[in-house]
Write the structure tokens for this entry.
Amino acid sequence: MVRREWVLPFILQTDHTRKLDAGTWVPVTGGLGGQAIFLSELFSKSVPAPAHGEVEKDMVYFVDTYDVWDMKSGTRRPFR
């Protein structure tokens, strides 16, 4: 039997509390500040876009449906 453990460095461990108001939506305009967001049923991840190959900035990538949402133009297209 193999036992795997993952120890996070101290700088990555956080202890934060946030208050969220249910039902409050805030529109996002002007893009994502150069970030790209990957969304799926199981995870989400935000990355700085130009540093990751073909990932485009200000895009939301829907991994489960292979779609991309352009935050600046408000349009959807399939992955390339």
Remarks:
- The longest strand covers residues 35-39.
- The mean pLDDT is 80.
- The two ends are 42 Å apart (CA to CA).
